[in-house]
Amino acid sequence: MHTIGEVAELLGISAYTLRYYEKEQIIIPLRDAGGDRRYNESHLKWLQFVIKLKETQMPIAVIKKYASLFQEGEHTAPERLELLENHKRAVEDQMNNLHAANEMLELKIVAYRSFIGK
Fold first, then answer.
1. The pTM is what?
2. CA-to-CA distance for 56 and 91, rounded, in angstroms?
3. What is the reported pLDDT for 118?
4. pLDDT tens across 28-42, in order?
């Protein structure tokens, strides 16, 4: 079991972010006898997944929806699958846009290098 500070350090996020995720019911940590938050390995894996979703620009509202569906049970698997498939398409669109931007930048860099004789 890990404390909020340990989890924050392990995952490279703030304790504030963990408390926010709890407030938004994205994660529900366990509590010890003193009422302090405790996180197990399952919590860590879930948080790693949430972090990746955030890094790929999934809105918090959609992450909340996914978490809510997960907590409802296995009968929500088709809805969760649809959320992930939609997000995967959005990530692929982002990657295509970044690739196109990278190609444009490469052309500009080559042009400038040629212009200044580098």
1. 0.80
2. 6
3. 72
4. 999 988 998 999 999
